Amino acid sequence: MCGGIFESFIGNETGGVDIFSYQVSNIAVAMTRDEIIEASIDPAVMRVCKSTPTQYVPEVFYKYKNAYNLLVQEAANPTFPVEYLLVNVCESPFFFPWFFE
After folding, report:
1. Which of 12, 37, 71, 97 is deepest in the core (most CB within 10 A)?
2. pTM attached to this predicted model
3. Which of 49, 48, 39, 34 is CA-nearest to residue 76?
């Protein structure tokens, strides 16, 4: 099981195009498949589903460094930043043979 790769093409200040590649982590794929997380209205955050009588959803936590540079663990209740589910992918024209055609 592998998450999909997403390409972002963004213009820069010199008139060129910058390419950014991201992949959804395998954990994100599994959590979505198991109905633990779902998309929210805000594309920057993911929602944690609520437990129902037929579906148990465990508590989800994430870590970040606060303003004092201390590692803080926080419950993702009800949302958490989507960047915890993304993996940066190195892009290269050598991976895309059609780039030179």
Report:
1. 37
2. 0.68
3. 48
